[in-house]
Amino acid sequence: MKKGAVDRSEGGGEEAAAAEEEEEEWASSGKLYEAYNELHGLAQEFETPFEAPAVLVVGHQTDGKSALVEALMGFQFNHVGGGTKTRRPITLHMKYNPTCELPWCRLVSDADPAVAHFKSLAEIQAYIEAENMRLESDPCQFSEKEIIIKIEYKYCPNLTMIDTPGLIIPAPGRKNRILQGQARAVEALVRAKMQHKEFIILCLEDCSDWSNATTRRAVMQIDPELSRTVIVSTKLDTKIPQFSRSSDVEVFLKPPVCMLDGCLLGDSPFFTSVPSGRVGPGHEAVYRSNEEFKKAISLRELEDVASLEEKLGRSLSKEERSRIGVSSLRLFLEELLQKRYLESVPLIIPLLEKEFRSTTRKLSDVNKELSNLDEVKLKEKGRAFHDSLLTKLSLLLKGTVVAPPDKFGETLQDERTSGGTFIGTDGLQFPHKMMPNAGMRLYGGAQYHRAMAEFRLVVGGVKCPPITREEIVNACGVEDIHDGTNYSRTACVIAVAKARDTFEPFLHQLGFRLLYILKRLLPISVYLLQKDGEYLSSHEVFLRRVEIAFNNFAEVTERACRDKCMEDLVSTTRYVTWSLHNKNRAGLRQFLDSFSGTEHSSNGNSTCLGGLQESSFGSNDNKHERLKTDLKPNHGTQGVDSNSCSPLVETRLVDLLDSTLWNRRLAPSSERIVFALVHQIFHGIKEHFLVSTELKFNCFLLMPVVDKLPALLREDLESAFEDDLDNIFDITQLRHSLGQCKRDLEIELKRIQRLKEKFREINQQLNSHQIWPKRISTVKPRC
């Protein structure tokens, strides 16, 4: 007779049948847990889109998080104490195995997740401590990559638990910036883990007042209704003595809905205590074995129940008793997770089928890539990619909605942040809200047009900078043949200097902004190529060369265009041509007429001086037309004697020469004339600058992308093909990487196929009622 067999003829038939049924149930359940553990490992290794149910432990530092995990496991393995003792999430695939008298642990390799090495508890603890020390000196401080440990033990529950780093509440102030940065990193890591909908969140709270939501604050940001959250109040043995009245204990054990709202899993919180002390042979150890540690946990539960009953003055109800102690929490989590496992089995199979088809397709593509690694086919692929890229670039400039604006579009504020702003000499920016389409997320040709419209609006609103009397006097200088003053030259000197200093920065800002917009076309085009399946994903060297060629073309073209605009600005501000700079002569004449009216009150005098002004500031009129005008009778001055006007005109001419040529004392009249001329010249330069700059950027920056870029890229491509085809496509490295990718996909395909068969078998057994948990309690959330 085999060891452990039962003789049914000796009255042990019923016991033997029960034992056999329990053994079959344990074996069948073991298949279920093993399949889900492998599924979880597959999801972690290959980033597959499915997740196995698991318990995610979340709490602050010193909440007793790692100690509670050890108590649930039935043995100690981690470094427990104050401060940050967990810097990488630790995934524990626990499996009940009554034949394992000691914990049988395997550590999954970081290099090859398919390999798990047998490790002792001391070796696992040393590995975790070494990882913590490594990350403590690392700039990131924490890592999202999980430490995966598979454990079989006679005291282990059938659970998958993930122990996360403890949340931190740092003190304010600049001196605590390092700790504040660590707190943000930990919270981001924990939040990312809580995003998985299949995870049950075990939320640990170390408080005696449920109004204080320390850990719940972080948990409810992801699970606001607490519909997949189990709340545990740790360190119950330290809280019981704090209550002086039984009513306080009643509220603590059964908090009202107003304090603990939401659809809480398990209807109410759990309360646990873990005895202090470590297991080991040393003199500092409290327990010599894990058996003693487990007995201490059970004894602690009994003491907590007795203390609560003493405080309440009554016995705990069955429902209250089911919420006290590590064993009650362990039973609840095991049944809850087992229920989730069974519910998820029919849903996992279609996901595995889909992933199997996706992996098969990827493997087929890799095999096709390997078969196409010859010169002729690579050249054809390169040329096809070249044509497709140019098509996408042209499409983006003409306008399209294929690329999502929320991903690739930019508002005007975003564009200014990355591409620079239009800022004049006064240092002020044009309010972005006053620009049309400022809040819209644009790209391509629409973004180019908006930037050019902003340039026109900003530069068009620029006014002539203020002119000081010192600038006027300094601009007068001394002529090479006389020491008189020439206020027309003075006005020209001031105007061109002001215009050059004002408009040159705008030219550089426009070039930088439009170059930024053009460079953004490439990543958007790549997205469109990927979407249409025309992207060469495995040829990084080739793609990098195309990117460099495009960016170089954009930079060289922008620089050449800006140089052309700069030449135009230099010529416009170097020599004043009155037909170009004095566009608004009527406005200037009106100003001078009003000026002469203030100086001379009589109509006759005004008329005579007006004629003088007509001859002085209208010098660039057509002489023939002016002569015909002079020969015509002036009907407006018939009542004025020409003989009497002539001496007056000569007198005024002498006065004008005295104030503008022979006298260096800057009179108000001379100052006003200079101001008028400077503003007039500045306005003419601005109009010419606006028109010519926009035209040149359209002709010499935008249009070359359409008519010159194709030829340049094709020339660069053919040159690369002729010079070194092997390096441009990096055929040797590509063949090696594709081979490695093929091997990985084949391994993944085999694992998915094996999992498919396991879950199909489990599903068939479930349908035939061969697997069903012995104790499945209906776990209802409190709503």
TrEMBL record:
Record flagged with keyword Coiled coil: yes
GO biological-process terms attached to the record: peroxisome fission
GO molecular-function terms, A-Z: GTP binding; GTPase activity; microtubule binding
Domain Dynamin-type G residues, every copy: 49-346
Listed Gene3D superfamilies: P-loop containing nucleotide triphosphate hydrolases
GO cellular component term of the entry, any: membrane
Name of this protein: Dynamin-like protein ARC5
